[in-house]
Design goal:
The protein is an all-alpha fold. The protein contains 4 helices and no strands. It has one domain. Helix 1 packs antiparallel against helix 2 and helix 1 runs parallel beside helix 4. The longest helix is centred in the last third of the chain and has 42 residues. The protein is rod-shaped, with a radius of gyration of 20 Å.
Length: 99
């Protein structure tokens, strides 16, 4: 079951990366919730300490990927807001001074 969950986690991670690159901030929350659910499911499937130790590398990868998504989302969204704000200001100035 673990490889199947890991495959689904990778799929959702790829979808989140795609959303970030496309600045699709509407879809990210749903994928984030799905990713959270899958990570919890994966952690629950690691019932024994042997299983936990053997999957420590995978857990570390997931953790670093989540940290990456957190920082990347904040950075991209900040840049997106600045871009939209500049566009809005230019549009308002155009409307104001064009007639």
């Amino acid at each position: 079951m673990e490889p199947k969950i890991l495959k689904r986690i990778r799929l959702i991670e790829n979808k989140i990366e795609s959303c970030l690159s496309e600045e699709d901030f509407i879809s990210i929350p749903a994928y984030s919730l799905e990713l959270e659910k899958l990570v919890k499911e994966f952690a629950a499937s690691l019932e024994t300490s042997d299983s936990l130790n053997s999957n420590a590398e995978e857990l570390e990868k997931i953790s670093s990927k989540l940290e990456f998504f957190k920082s990347e989302t904040a950075t991209i969204f900040k840049n997106y807001r600045s871009k939209i704000s500049a566009r809005t200001k230019m549009h308002q100035a155009y409307k104001k001074y064009s007639g």
